[in-house]
Amino acid sequence: MSDEKALYNVYRSYLTTGSLQKFMNDVKTQGIQEDDPRMQRLTIIEKEAEDEKLDFDTFAKCMNPLSSLLKKVTECQFIIPDFQSFTKTIEEIYWMCKGNTSGENSTYIPQLSEVPDYFGVSMCTIDGQRYSIGDTKVPFSIQSCSKPLSYAIALEYLTSEVVHQYVGQEPSGRMFNEMVLDHNNKPHNPMINAGAIVIASLLYTLIERDSESMDKKLNLIKSWMERAAGNEYFNVDESSFLAEREIADRNFALGYFMREKKVFPEKANLLECLDFFFQLNSIQTTAEAFSVVASTLANGGVCPLTNEKIFSTETCRDVLSLMHSCGLYDYSGKFAFNVGLPAKSGVSGVVMLTIPNLAGICCYSPQLDEHGNSVRGIQFCEELLKVYAMHPYDNLRHSITRKSVNRGSDWFL
Ligand code: GLU
């Protein structure tokens, strides 16, 4: 019997024994949300079943995005099998971090300084199991978290060889907005302002040359982000953009400095490229949507909700490598030491954490530490790693203090 036929029989038996509700509950217990695009297919199947028209052909037609989900539910094969216990841990850590009220909002624009004391954490596994707690539907500007995504999109259009003719791969060891280039007169990496301004210039100048206008280019980039988020919320916050541009003396200075050093591609219009960079920083999303983007990066570029291939696996590897070494301002080394996972933060208080081949997490809390990272965002990641052995250099076989997230806590005994 084919896999599909076997699933059809399983599903039929759910229907005929009147246990569809049980199926729905099983799915929910595993963290699959009702609005998951894969679940929409169920509605068609259910309708046909009600009308007694559910034959194998109809079933097979609806199955494409649904089949792996059904298989996982019926065979308990999700990447985090004990999802309830995992989310309980997340909840406990959330409340522990919520009590930490230290740090200050970013003060350079009112759009950041006047934000209340929000705190939200969302996660999405590579199977689309989701959990959110706190202020996860509040929109915020992604700020520096646009950097890994712009870089990813540039890699997709231009290849790594071309992109890295313009920008390096080394941590700079300096402030994120410092006026400094490497010994080849290139920005050190795409995760700091110099590198991200150059990446913005590549996107603005070298790709899709027939859609020249700022709006068209911005919509193009936004649509990449939306697709990586399974089509969840993204928007451009015009007021943040205008405020960013108003206060951007250092970024303008950085731009002129780099133009003098011939860092930009030929024909790049500096002022337009800078505007484009400010726009990218001002793109808005929510913790819920951004956790899906992080999960797409963790999943080799395939969006876990839609199964759409957004980025190549090589692009994801390149992006995650630089997030790992350069993603958290001047705390990147210590974070790599404590947590060992790729992450990127932004001055709005967002921290995007990817756990390759497992999940993406987005923390949002606007109070920042002295490095410009969200206090609670960093604390959350570090506490999570104290419980679960997810650091790449953790050892499960001989550890008695940390749990394996997908093999059970007593796997090594
Ligand atoms: N918008 C900030 C700037 O250009 C950077 C954003 C960030 O680091 O999150 O100075």
What does this structure look like?
This protein has helices at residues 3-16, 20-29, 37-50, 56-63, 67-75, 83-98, 110-113, 146-163, 193-206, 214-228, 238-246, 249-260, 270-281, 287-298, 313-326, 332-338, 375-387, and strands at residues 120-125, 130-134, 140-141, 234-236, 283-285, 343-346, 350-355, 359-364. The strands form 2 sheets. Strands 2-1-8-7-6 form a 5-stranded antiparallel sheet. It has a 3-stranded antiparallel sheet with strand order 3-5-4. Residues 408-413 have low confidence and may be disordered. The chain has 17 helices and 8 strands. The protein has 2 domains: 3-75, no CATH class; 94-395, Beta-lactamase, CATH 3.40.710.10. The protein is an alpha+beta fold. 47% of the residues are buried. It is globular, with a radius of gyration of 22 Å. Bound molecules: glutamic acid. Residues 143-144, 176-177, 193, 244, 251, 281, 346-347 line the site of glutamic acid (GLU).
